[in-house]
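Hi support team,

I've been running sequence recovery on a batch of backbones for a student project. Most finish fine, but this one hangs at about 90% for roughly twenty minutes before it completes. I'm not sure whether the input is malformed or the queue is just slow. I've pasted the structure tokens below so you can try to reproduce it. Let me know if you need the job ID as well.

Thanks,
M.K.
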């Protein structure tokens, strides 16, 4: 009998500390955090405001660096990468979904999804990239809105565009910071269902920082944080 392949830890934090100097005081945003996020499933980071959720996303996305400890993403130790390699890493290995969508209002829906391909080099032809963007828009139910200015869309539609955009460069990890904060309950459900299905299809790890309890049923693992420390980890078999 063949065994199912072991789930890969695409994200690994080991003994991570992050401090911010603020005047004469030091804020310990993360204090010895070790955690994993696996490919093909969603992992939630939950906890009170200031507990360190966004700080973790920023470290995994190489938008900031740890004060101590290691952050390994898709087998790469981020401490070992130089600035050019980190820029390449941000563009190719991670996709971002934001609370405020961060779409470019003057561009069309399709142009917004294509944006990650305009940064850095791409080995693919323009035609292949446009085809992938169209497929992703079809997958998130927005093929008909492809050529519309993105600012004509509803909030839920905009967040579905940002999910498609986050996946455009076939990232190993998607980082979503409060992705449902500006959506109503029903719309949140649609976006979360898509995120969960697409991360499984694309074999990406999704790391979601959230206050929204509606996110939790979609997540396979829930990591609870308080004051820069992990206080609990649950496997929900979602
Ligand atoms: N750039 C910064 N400079 C100084 N302190 C910071 C900075 N970024 C975060 N912090 C501090 O680090 C701690 C963790 O912040 P973080 O943004 O990670 O919390 P969070 O869990 O995402 O909170 P929220 O739920 O409000 O988004 C807080 O005390 C915050 O004030
Ligand atoms: Mg935050």
């Amino acid at each position: 009998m063949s065994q199912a392949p072991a789930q890969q830890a695409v994200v690994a934090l080991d003994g991570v500390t992050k401090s911010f100097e603020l005047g004469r005081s030091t804020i310990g945003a993360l204090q010895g955090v070790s955690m994993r996020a696996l490919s093909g499933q969603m992992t939630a980071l939950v906890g009170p405001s200031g507990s360190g959720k966004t700080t973790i996303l920023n470290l995994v996305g190489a938008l900031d660096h740890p004060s101590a400890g290691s952050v390994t993403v898709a087998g790469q130790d981020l401490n070992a990468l130089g600035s050019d390699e980190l820029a390449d890493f941000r563009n190719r290995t991670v996709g971002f979904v934001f609370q405020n969508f961060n779409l470019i209002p003057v561009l069309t829906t399709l142009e917004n999804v294509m944006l990650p391909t305009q940064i850095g080099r791409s080995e693919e032809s323009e035609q292949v990239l446009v085809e992938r963007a169209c497929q992703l828009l079809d997958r998130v139910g927005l093929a008909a809105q492809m050529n519309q200015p993105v600012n004509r869309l509803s909030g839920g539609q905009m967040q579905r565009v940002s999910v498609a955009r986050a996946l455009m460069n076939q990232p190993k990890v998607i980082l979503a910071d409060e992705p449902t904060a500006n959506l109503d309950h029903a719309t949140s459900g649609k976006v979360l269902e898509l995120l969960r299905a697409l991360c499984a299809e694309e074999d990406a790890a999704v790391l979601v920082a959230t206050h929204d309890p509606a996110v939790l049923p979609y997540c396979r693992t829930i990591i609870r944080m308080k004051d820069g420390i992990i206080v609990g980890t649950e496997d929900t078999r979602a």
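--
Follow-up from support: It reproduced on our side and the slowdown came from queue contention, not your input. The CA atoms of residues 113 and 165 lie 4 Å apart. No action needed from you.
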